[in-house]
Design brief:
The chain is mainly alpha-helical. It is about 75% helix and about 0% strand. The protein has 21 helices and no strands. About 20% of the residues are buried.
C-alpha cells in the first residue's frame, strides 16, 4: 500500500512539475524556438531554387522577418539576465534575516488561499499543520532551505559559459529540486519533511502537492523582488528630469552667459584676430547690443548672497536682480522638455528640440522685451531687432548649460548602473567661474 502511495506521489510530482513550469517564464522554450528559427533559415538557404519565381521573391522577406524575431528574443533574454551586482544583491537579499522573515510572512498569508490547496481538504489540513505554532521552527527551516538553494542555483547557473541558456539551466535545476522531497530520499530536504510527519498521517501525494505550492511561491516572491528592482531603476531613469535651480545658481548661469556675450562683442568690435569681420549694417546693431548687455549686468554686488561673494574674485558677472523671475521662467521651460522620456523618443534631435522649445516661446520673448524696456535706458532697449537677438543668444546659452548638466548626469547614471567608473564631468558649476578668473589673471 505504501509502495502504491509513493508511486502515485512520484507520478503527481512529475505532473505538478509540468503544471508549475507552465506558470513560469520558460527561457528554454525561447532558446529552442530561436534554434528552430535559425535551423529553418539554414534549411531555407540550402534548399535548391526549384520553386516558382514568386516564391523566390518572397524568401528574403521571410528571412528578414525571422532574423528580426530572433534578434528581439535575444535582446529580451539579455535583459532578463542578471549582472554581477544584481546577483550579489540577490544573494544578500535572500540571506538577510529580515528578508527571510518577509518571505515567511508572505507565504503564511497566501498558502491557505491557494486554489491547489483549499480545493482539496487533505491538502488544506496539511497546510494548516505546516503553519501551526508547533511547526513554526520546521517551517522556517523549509523556507530558508528553499531561499538558499535558490541563491546557490542562481550563482552556479550564472557562472555557466553558455550565456544564452543560463536562465533555462536555472529553471531546470529549480524544478528538479522538488524531487528531493520525495519519500525515500536520504537528504536534508527530505529530513525536514520527515519532521512535519512525526506522529501524523498524510498521503505522499498531499505532502508533495503542498510542498510544490510553497516551492512555487518562493520562486515568485524572489522573482518579483528582482523585477521590482529592475522596474524601479527603469522607472527612475525614464522619469528623471532636472530639478529647479536655486537663485544663486541662476545668477551664476546667467552671469556666465552675459560675460561671454559681452566679451564676444567687445573683441569683434575691436576686430581682434580670429573674430569675424563686421559689415556696415551689423556694426551699429552690435554696439547697441553691447551697451544694453552692460546695462543688464549688476554694478553693485553688495546685495548678492554670501556664497557668491566667496566665489567672486572681482571679475564675476551677475545679472541684475530684476532678471531673476525671467530666468526662473526660462529654467522651468527647459526642465519641461529636458527629461529621459524625451531623450528616448527623440535621441537624434533631443538637444535641438530642447533649445527650440525655449527659443520659439513667444511668451518668454515678450516678457523679456517688456522687462528690458522697463529696466534699461539705452537706445537699444526699444529696438526690437536688438532685443530679439539678445534674447535668442542669452536663452540659448542658458539652455545649453542646463542641457549639458542633464546629459552629464545621465552619463553618470548609466555608468553607475553598468558598474563602471564614473568619469563624467562633475565640475560643471565650478567651471563657470573660469570665465572671470581667466580674464583677471591675463
Amino acid at each position: 500500500m505504501a509502495d502504491r502511495r509513493e508511486e502515485s506521489a512520484s507520478e503527481s510530482s512529475s505532473t505538478s512539475d509540468d503544471s508549475s513550469s507552465e506558470g513560469f517564464e520558460s527561457p528554454s522554450q525561447s532558446s529552442e524556438s530561436e534554434d528552430s528559427e535559425e535551423s529553418n533559415e539554414s534549411s531555407t538557404r540550402s534548399r535548391p531554387s526549384t520553386s516558382k519565381p514568386q516564391n523566390v521573391s518572397k524568401r528574403p522577406a521571410s528571412k528578414s522577418t525571422s532574423k528580426g524575431a530572433a534578434k528581439k528574443k535575444r535582446e529580451a533574454a539579455k535583459e532578463s539576465n542578471l549582472s554581477e551586482d544584481q546577483m550579489e544583491e540577490l544573494s544578500s537579499w535572500i540571506f538577510s534575516t529580515e528578508r527571510s522573515a518577509e518571505v515567511e510572512a508572505n507565504i503564511r498569508s497566501r498558502l491557505l488561499e491557494s486554489l491547489r490547496v483549499k480545493t482539496v481538504s487533505e491538502r488544506q489540513r496539511f497546510a494548516n499543520h505546516l503553519l501551526c505554532e508547533t511547526q513554526k521552527h520546521n517551517f522556517q527551516l523549509l523556507l530558508v532551505g528553499f531561499c538558499r538553494k535558490f541563491s546557490t542555483l542562481a550563482s552556479e547557473c550564472f557562472a555557466l559559459p553558455d550565456k544564452a541558456n543560463r536562465k533555462a539551466a536555472f529553471s531546470v535545476a529549480w524544478m528538479k529540486l522538488l524531487s528531493n522531497f520525495q519519500p525515500g530520499k536520504a537528504i536534508q530536504q527530505r529530513s525536514i519533511i520527515e519532521r512535519f510527519l512525526v506522529g501524523q498521517q498524510f498521503d505522499a501525494e498531499v505532502v508533495h502537492a503542498v510542498v510544490s505550492v510553497v516551492h512555487e511561491m518562493v520562486y515568485h516572491i524572489i522573482h518579483a523582488q528582482i523585477q521590482s528592482k529592475k522596474s524601479a531603476t527603469t522607472s527612475e531613469a525614464r522619469t528623471s528630469k532636472l530639478n529647479p535651480e536655486t537663485d544663486d545658481t541662476l545668477y551664476r548661469y546667467c552671469g556666465a552667459a552675459l560675460h561671454r556675450m559681452i566679451k564676444l562683442r567687445k573683441e569683434t568690435l575691436k576686430q581682434k584676430k580670429g573674430r569675424a569681420k563686421l559689415s556696415s549694417q551689423r556694426q551699429p546693431i552690435m554696439e547697441l547690443e553691447l551697451a544694453l548687455l552692460e546695462e543688464l549686468t549688476m554694478k553693485d554686488k553688495s546685495s548678492v548672497p554670501q556664497s557668491l561673494k566667496n566665489l567672486d574674485e572681482g571679475n564675476l558677472v551677475f545679472p541684475r536682480t530684476e532678471l531673476l523671475p525671467f530666468l526662473k521662467q526660462v529654467d522651468n521651460n527647459v526642465r519641461e522638455f529636458t527629461c529621459d522620456s524625451n531623450l528616448s523618443k527623440y535621441p537624434t534631435i533631443f538637444i535641438d528640440m530642447c533649445q527650440t522649445s525655449v527659443l520659439n516661446n513667444e511668451g518668454l520673448e515678450v516678457d523679456f522685451r517688456l522687462l528690458v524696456a522697463a529696466i534699461a535706458s539705452t537706445k537699444g532697449a526699444t529696438d526690437s531687432a536688438v532685443v530679439s537677438g539678445l534674447f535668442k543668444a542669452l536663452v540659448s546659452k542658458f539652455a545649453n548649460t542646463r542641457i549639458n548638466e542633464f546629459m552629464n548626469a545621465k552619463i553618470e547614471r548609466d555608468l553607475k548602473s553598468a558598474g563602471k567608473v564614473v568619469d563624467a564631468d562633475e565640475m560643471l558649476r565650478p567651471k563657470l567661474k573660469s570665465y572671470s578668473v581667466s580674464a583677471k589673471r591675463k
